[in-house]
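Sequence and fold
=================
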Amino acid sequence: MYFNLANYRNNWKRLGFTDDEVSRPGSDRLVDAVVAYGTPDAIAARLNEHLLAGADHVPIQVLTEDDNLVSALTELAKPLRLT
């Protein structure tokens, strides 16, 4: 996450997070609000929430334990109905 960047911290604070919550390592509440994590189905559901709320695109940054990005994206594609 981008805790060292004032523009991110300021935006999070405008969204109602406190100084403590936007300081490293970030509060559980902040992480839950800005990170989709878990199983591929759980991540897809979270991303679809943005689309249902009116977003016309939802950019993502995939983080994996083993740097196998292709495998992670392949797993995520099915519940997102991209295959």
Remarks:
- Residues 40-52 form the longest helix (13 residues).
- The chain has two domains: 1-35, 39-83.
- Residues 39-83 form one domain.
- Helices lie at 6-14, 28-34, 40-52, 69-77.
